[in-house]
Amino acid sequence: MRFRSLQSRIVVFFVALLLTVQVAGFGLISHAIKNYAARTIRHELAVGERIFQRVLEQNAHQLALATSILADDYGFRQAISSVNQKRLALALDVHRERVGAEVMMLINPKHIVLADSNRSTLTNKPFPFPELIRESEKTGSASMILVSNDRLYQFVLVPVTVPAAWIVLGFPIDDRLAADLGELASLQISFLRRTDNEEWKLFASTLPAALQPALLDHMRGVAAVDSTPLMVLDGEKFQTLTSSVSKIGEKPVFAVLQRSLNDALLPFDALQANLLVLTLIGLVISVAGSIFTARNVSRPVTQLAKLANEIEQGNYLQAAEMDRADEIGKLASAFNHMRQAIADRENRISTLAYKDALTGLPNRILFNDRLHQALGSSLRSGQPLTVLIMDLDHFKDVNDTLGHHMGDLLLEEVATRLQTTLARQSDTLARLGGDEFAVLLPADDAKAARSVALRLLEALDVPITLNGHAVDVGGSIGIASYPEHGTDAGTLLQRADVAMYAAKRGNSGVAVYDPRDDDHTAERLSLLGDLKHAVEFNELMLCYQPQLDLQTGTVESVEALIRWRHPRRGYIAPDLFIPFAEQSGYIKTITRWVLAEAFRKAAECHANRLPIRISVNISARDLAGAELQETCIELIQLYRVEPEWIRLEITEGAIMDDPTRAMETLEALHGMGFDLSIDDFGKGYSSLSYLKKLPVDELKIDKSFVMGMVCDKDDAMIVRSTIDLGHNMGLRVVAEGVENAEDLHLLKQLRCDLAQGFLISKPLSSNDLMKWLSEFRSRPISENAHFADTAQNRPARNSSFSVVKSG
Ligand code: C2E
Ligand code: CA
Ligand code: CA
Q1: Which of 212, 310, 449, 587 is close enough to 581 for a disulfide, judged by CB 3.0 to 4.6 Å?
Q2: Which helix (H) or strand (E) holds 438?
Q3: Structure-model confidence comparison of residues 686 and 660, the more confident one
C-alpha cells in the first residue's frame, strides 16, 4: 500500500512510531513481570523445601520424644516384656493410637519383629528396614521415609533400654499430609519414586487429580529428575524443585515441589490488562492527534495548491485566508504577496499590451479583440456592424514643422475630441498607430455609420491650438460593414482601409467601401500564368536568413524565404507574388514546393553536421484542409527529417481567418513535433485571448516595430510589451528586421531570445548559407555574440538576394 498524501503519511508515521514504542514497552514489562514471577517462585520453592524438611524433622523429633516417653512408661515396658503376643499387640495398638501413628512395631535386639500393631505377616520375621536400625545405632533414634506395602511412610525408630528393644512408628505420607505441607508452604507437593520396572509411582500429591498423570508422564521422559525447573502439565506451566527425601536404597523417593506460573502471574494480569487498555487509549489518542495535526498541515497546503491552480488559470481574486502565526501562516502571506505581485505585473503587461501609451485609447490589439467579440455577437444576432478607419490629413507636416512633441499633443487632442463625439458606451475608439484611428460601431450599418463619421470629422473642424499655434486638422474616413463588405475582421479592416484611401484620393472626407476601389485586377491573370510556369520551370529558389540566439551568440535556426528569378523581370520579391498566390489559391502548390526544398535542405545540413532548424512560412489557405499535414508526413519519410528540424511560421492574420480550423491544424502539426511560430506579431488582427490558447512556441515581432524601435517610443513600447507578453505566455520571442547594432543592443537588454535581420545576415542562397554557417562557427563566440555595426559585418543592402522590388 502506498501513501500518497502528506496527511496519511504523517498519520502512518506517528501511529507506527507509537505502536512500536508501546509494543516494545509492553513486551519489556511483560518480560520483567515474568522474570520477577519466576524469581519469586524459585525463592518460594527454596523456602518451601526448607519448610517441608523442617516439618519432617520436627515430626520425627516429636515422634521420637513421644516414643521415648512411652518407652519409659512402666506399664508399657511391662507389656512389651510379656511374651504373650496377643497382649503385646494390643498394648502396641493402644499406644499407636495415642501417638496417632498408623504402624507400630516392636523389634528385638536380633532385629526380629516381635509384634506389629497391624498384626501383619511381619511378626517373627526380620525387620525389613535394617538401614533404620543402623542409623539408630549411630544416633539414638532415627527417622526415614520408606515404602512399605506400596505406601509411603515416615518411620521413626526409638531404642528401648529395658528390656532392650526398638519401637518403630510409621506415619503414612499420604494426600492429607501432602495437603498440610502444601498449605504450609503454599506450594503443590507430590511424592514419587521409580518402581522396579522403571515406571514412576505417585504416593501422594496436592496436584489436582487431572494433572497427576501428566506429572508421571513428564517424569518418565526426563533423564535427571532435577533437570526440569519449568514443567508444563496439561498446558499449565509450573516452576519445579525436586528434592530427594530418602537417600537410602537404589530408588530414592522424591518430593516434587511446584508452583503454577499462571497462578503466580495472576496478580499481574490485572496490571497487564490495565497496561493494554492504556496502550489502546494512547493509540486512539495518537491516531486522533496525528490526524488532527496532519490535517492542520495538509489542509492549508491543499488549499494553497488549489489557489496556485486558480492563479495558473488567471484568477487572482481569491486570497489565501489563513489566520495563523506559524510557518504555514507565513507561507500563506508570502503566497498572497506573490499573487498580488503577479496580478499587478499581469495588469501592467496587459495595460502595456492593450492600451496606446500616448492617448490612453485601446490599441490595435484590443481593438481587434473587441472587433472579434462584436463579430461573434453579430453572427448570432444577425445585426450589422461597422468599422471606420480614419487617417489624419497633413499630420506628417505638423510633425516635421512643429516637432514630435507637438505631434503628440495634436494626437492627444484629436483623441479627446473623437472620444467625446462618440456618445455610446458600446462604441470603441482606438489608435492603430501613427495618425491612424479606428472606430467600432456594433449594431450600425454603413448608412448609420456614415453620419457618425461625418460628426467625427465635424469635431475636427475647429482648429486645434498648440502652444499658441492654431493648427487645422482634417481626416479621411473609410467605412466597411458586416455583412455587406466582409464577414471577418481582417477583410473588414482591409476594406475600410481601401475605402479610407479612396476618401483621401477623392478628397471626400468619408467613403464607404466599393470593390471598384480594389486595384490591379487585369494584371493578376497574366501573373498566375507566369507563376505556374515558374514552379514548372524551376524559377523559384529558397534563400535562408540566419537567426542569432541572443543568449548564447550561436546560430541554430534560419528562415526560408522564397525568391522568383523571373526571366524578364529579374528577381521578384515575395511581397509581390505571394499575396496574389494566396488569393488565387495557387499558394498551396508553392507551399508544397517550399516545404520540399526546406526538408531537403534540413536533411542536407544535418548530414553535414550542421544541425539547423529551418523556419518555413505558411499561408492562411494552407491551414484549411488536411493537405499540409499530409505533405509534411510524406516529406518526413522522403527526406528522413525529424519534425523538430522544421519550424512553421504562421501570421496572426492567417490564424484569425478561420480560428477553429487553424486551431485544429496547428494542434495536429504541433502534435507531430513541429515547432510553431506566430509571424508578424503586433501587425495582425488577432484576439490575444485566442492566441493564448494556441499550441505555439514562438512569437515573431513584426519588423516594422523593431525597425522603428530606437526612434519611436510607441514602437519601443510594443516591442518591450510583446517580449514580456511572450515570456509571460512561456514563448520564445524573435525580433526580425534587426538592421543595426543599436537595435541588437536594445533587444538584448529587453531579453529578446532571437534576432534576425540584415545586421546578422541578409537572406543567403543555399550554397552561401553553408559557407556562412561554417565561417560563423569558426569565429570565437564572443565575437559573434557582440555584433558590431562595422562595414565588414554589415551586408550590402542591394545584394542580389535582398528584397528587390520590381518597378
Ligand atoms: P516575413 O515572413 O516577415 O519575412 C521577413 C522579411 O523581412 C523578408 O522579406 C526578409 O528579407 C526581410 N528582412 C529580413 N531582415 C531584414 C532587415 O534587417 N531589414 C529589412 N528591411 N527587411 C528584412 P522577404 O524575403 O521579401 O519576404 C517578405 C514576406 O514574404 C515574408 O515576410 C513572408 O510573409 C512572405 N514570404 C517569403 N517567403 C515565403 C514563402 O516561402 N511562403 C510564404 N507563404 N510566404 C513567404
Ligand atoms: Ca516569416
Ligand atoms: Ca515577419
Answers
A1: 587
A2: strand 436-442
A3: 660
- Ligand 1 near 595 CB (within 6 A): no
Ligand 2 centroid to residue 538 C-alpha, Å: 22
Residue identifier of the C-alpha nearest atom 12 of ligand 1: 737
Q: Can you tell me which atom of ligand 1 is nearest the CA of 758?
A: 18
* Tens of pLDDT, residues 690-749: 777 889 999 999 999 999 998 888 889 989 989 998 998 899 999 999 999 999 999 999
Q: Encode pLDDT of 57-114 as tens digits.
A: 887 888 788 777 777 777 777 777 776 777 777 778 888 888 788 888 888 888 888 8
Q: What's the rounded mean pLDDT across residues 542-553?
A: 95
Ligand 3: centre distance to CA 703 (Å): 6
Closest C-alpha among 583, 552, 576, 547 to residue 679 = 547
Q: How far is CA 13 from CA 164, 276, 282, in A?
A: 90, 21, 15
DSSP secondary structure string for all residues of 654-697: HHHHSHHHHHHHHHHHHHHT-EEEEEEETTS---HHHHHHS---
DSSP state of 126: B
Q: Is the CB of 582 under 6 A from ligand 1?
A: no
Ligand 1, from 591, 707, 736: best to mutate by most atoms within 8 Å of Cβ? Answer: 736
Atom 15 (ligand 1) nearest CA: 757
Joined together, the cell numbers standing for residue 239 give: 516452576
Report CA Rg, the chain.
Answer: 59
Distance 27 CA to ligand 3 centre (A): 80
Residue 691: what residue type?
A: L
* Dihedral angle, C-alpha 269, 271, 276, 280, nearest 10 °: 150
Section 417-421 average pLDDT: 94
Give Cα 623 distance to the centre of its chain: 40
Shortest CA distance to 735 belongs to which of 556, 547, 490, 588?
547
Ligand 1 and 594: CB distance under 6 A:
yes
Residues 198-231: pLDDT tens digits? Answer: 788 899 999 998 889 888 888 887 777 776 688 8
**Phi then psi for 708, rounded to 5 degrees?**
-95, -5
| Number of CB atoms found within 10 A of residue 542's CB | 21
User: Taking Cα atoms as reference points, which of 656, 664, 662 lies closest to residue 683?
Assistant: 656
The verdict on the CB of residue 561 being under 6 Å from ligand 1 is yes
Nearest CA to 288 among 503, 10, 500, 71? 10
Identify the band that residue 646 occupies on the pLDDT scale cut at 50, 70 and 90: very high
The ligand 1 atom at the shortest distance from the C-alpha of residue 574 is: 30
Give yes or no for a contact between 708 and 722, defined as CB atoms under 8 angstroms apart: no
> How far apart (Å, rounded) are the C-alpha atoms in residues 247 and 261?
30
CB neighbour list of residue 77: distance below 8 Å, 6 or more residues apart: 71, 160, 162, 163
Please state, for a pLDDT cut of 70, what percent of the chain lies above it: 93
First vs last C-alpha separation in the chain: 78
- Cβ–Cβ < 8 Å for 492, 482: yes
pLDDT value of position 685: 56
